Amino acid sequence: MRLKEHLKNGDMEIAQVVLRIAKVTKTISRGFATRQGISDSSNIYGEQQLAMDKWADELILSDLKASGLVRFFASEEQPDILKFDSSSDIGVTIDPLDGSSLIGVNLAVGTIVGIYRGDVLSPGSEMVGAMYVLYGPLTTLNYCLGEGVHEFLLNEHDEFVLQAENLTIPDSKIYAPGALRRDYLPFHKRYIETLEDDGYKLRYSGSFVADVHQILHKGGIFTYPGFKGREEGKLRLLFEANPMGYIITEAGGATSDSQQSILSIKPESISQRVPVYIGGRREIELIEKIRKGE
Question: pLDDT-derived band of residue 39, with 50, 70 and 90 as boundaries?
Fold first, then answer.
């Protein structure tokens, strides 16, 4: 079954947004060979943009603006929330190319999308959908519009075709830990040591979207915590944590900043960062128990 057919019984406005972004990601998937290197500009975080970052962002922005489907647009590569001429109330958040620093060594990267009705500076629990596209040995698309997480494969005919419906996160002992161990905060150090004592195996690539995709399929926990010198965390609430947290939660998992669900946090700005724990319910319960008892 093709993606368009799979979406036909849902909200048609939202479905059109998903299909529009999916079409753009096909172009992005073909662009890696010709757009290596860095650009001459920086994003809102002061990070120098790679050529693929900038191109992917401009591609998605211009396409959604021209579509008339979206009113509000926020991107990790843009300094402000943009407002397009549209009769809809749909808001979209985009991380155009998560993990782009890994392109040079040919590791998996992805595009992450959050979908809202109205203000994108809303808690993740108010999202109406999320999706991500993973560019790896295969190009896959996972989406959720509140009723299951579904996976599609980009085939040889340039079509996204159904691979699996209603994915659920399994029970497994895998952990993907970001940040340097020497900079761990005390409660997080205890958490990691508890996982290791329980036999968890380390599986970490450094690409957030790829590592969370692994957790969705294999189980366990991804974490990029707050750490010494950056207690607020590294990952972006709006562009990374919320969309992926929404998908994992809809697949039966959970997400936390170590004290509360990330999806309950009201964003204060588009650049807000947050400590991230995302994965199985057991692992999320454990970090919150350890943090509460510190």
Answer: very low
Please tell me the predicted confidence (pLDDT) of residue 101.
Answer: 84
Collect all residues with Cβ–Cβ distance below 8 Å to 76 and sequence separation of at least 6: 43, 44, 45, 57, 94, 95, 96, 236, 239, 240
Beta-strand pair 201-202/174-177: parallel
pLDDT tens digits, one per residue of 202-258: 999 999 999 999 999 999 999 999 999 999 999 999 999 999 999 999 999 999 999
CB-based burial label for 291 (10 Å; 0-12, 13-18, 19+) = buried
Q: Between the CA of residue 25 and those of 9, 46, 97, 141, 255, what are the distances in Å?
A: 23, 25, 10, 9, 26
The structure tokens listed for 243 are 């969309």
**What are the φ and ψ backbone dihedral angles of 2, each rounded to 5 degrees?**
-85, 160
From the list 224, 211, 8, 199, the residue with the least C-alpha distance to 110 is 211
Contact between 75 and 57 under an 8 Å Cβ cutoff? The reply is yes
Look at residue 202 in the predicted model and tell me its pLDDT. 97
To the nearest whole number, what is the mean pLDDT of the chain?
94
* Residue 138 reports pLDDT greater than 80: yes
Which position has the token pair 């209603």?
166
Distant-in-sequence, close-in-space partners of 192: CB < 8 Å, separation ≥ 6: 175, 177, 181, 184
- Alpha carbon distance 200, 279 (integer Å): 13
For the chain, list the domains and their CATH numbers.
3-164 (3.30.540.10), 174-292 (3.40.190.80)
Q: Which pTM value belongs to this model?
A: 0.94
Distance of alpha carbon 32 from alpha carbon 61, whole angstroms: 18
